[in-house]
Amino acid sequence: MTASSSHPASRPLFPPSTLATLVTAVLAGIAADLLWEVWARGITPHLVGGPLEPAALVQSVFGLSSRTLAEIIHGVVGVVFYPLGYLFIARPIARVVTPFLPWWIVGLGFGAGLWVFALYIMAHLIAGLPPFLGFIPLAWASLAGHLIFGLTTAAVVRLRKA
Length: 162
Prior knowledge:
Elements: H1 19-48, H2 54-62, H3 67-97, H4 103-126, H5 137-159
Helix pairs in contact: 1-3, 1-5, 2-3, 2-4, 3-4, 4-5
């Protein structure tokens, strides 16, 4: 441990700001987003009668009429910004606050945090929908999808040793 921190010197709190870190984030985002889409559009409709529609939420939040633009925004956020959030915010916080948790619990916690962000902050506080959509079955399917996303992001980061 270094004198200036309680974090082991061999394991820095933040990943280096390099092209390799960005590649790791994008690969994690692609893998997580692909699994999210399989869950959201392929499996969820069979479980709850309809797909998850994050683009509709993006449209509501930003007042967009273009479904295509909303899909692009959600895709870019999922492929680039959420994985960077995992690497530079969620994982460092977990390393400081709960360093004893295994990577997969941190990934699931990250996914749960994304769900809270999506269905409470964005859907409720910004778009004016009921908190967590009133906990209808679609909200629980969304939780599962976000857990899949978080776990996949963490797994790819771990596999790439970022």
